Amino acid sequence: PQPIIGPPPKSQKYKGVKHTIMVMSGKGGVGKSTVSVNLAVTLANQSLKTGLIDADINGPDDPKMLGADNEKLYAQGDKILPVKTRYGVDLVSMGFILPTEDTAVIWRGALRHKAIQQFLEDVMWGERDYVIIDMPPGTGDEALSVSQLIDADGVVIVVTPQDIALLDAKKAINFANQLKVPVLGIVENMSGFICPHCGQTVDIFKRGGGEKAAEAYGVPFLGRIPLVAELVEKSDQGIPAVVYSEEMRKIFDEIARKVRE
Ligand code: ADP
Question: Which residues are ATP-binding (predicted)?
């Protein structure tokens, strides 16, 4: 028989955390994790105490992106202690407790909700300036589960530059409006490919979708991140873009500045 799920628990704020920010997208694969990780590292570099929750339980990539995929989670009492990464960001991810790197997570809804709940509620953050939540992709049940548990202070939306970005952004904005969480703005990712050979920019996915969406829906435009081949490789090696690229550092400094306003 299907387990019966009661009404969702009332969302709560993390004690001791000044700002909780959800990074979401209208769909998967647009660079939500890349933005979450680099934003978190940028905030940590600005001497802010920063935590990151990898709430994508299907494909928890953040440990790998932060070079922490061999770490384990520890508990103190009944609380989970976040893992310290080498980039100053403390991280909680389902990836730390899944048996192997390529274990697929195939759980039924109720169990999934329970896992997300435990994950979010039982973290011992201590005093933090920022906790960034790398949300499950899209605006479906899982994203809803997360947002019903944690009362966030703002949402950052990641889109790609195609015209469809308008639709994707709209879904995410509607979602945030329903939760009554302010939209801090839109980031356009994979905006223009910089050719590693000639340095020219090629707009593979067109350009400007994120900015158009921001204009259309009256929310701030936070910045544009180019598509760079090097990013994939470095990301797989556990080196965030803002750590090795001056250009990325500038872009994310600007995004972080607007998020902090
Ligand atoms: P999501 O969290 O939305 O599923 P990811 O951040 O995991 O997206 O990104 C999907 C893939 O695209 C990853 O392999 C990532 O390294 C790559 N990627 C993301 N942003 C960029 C970029 N600006 N340039 C090049 N590759 C990128």
Answer: 26-33
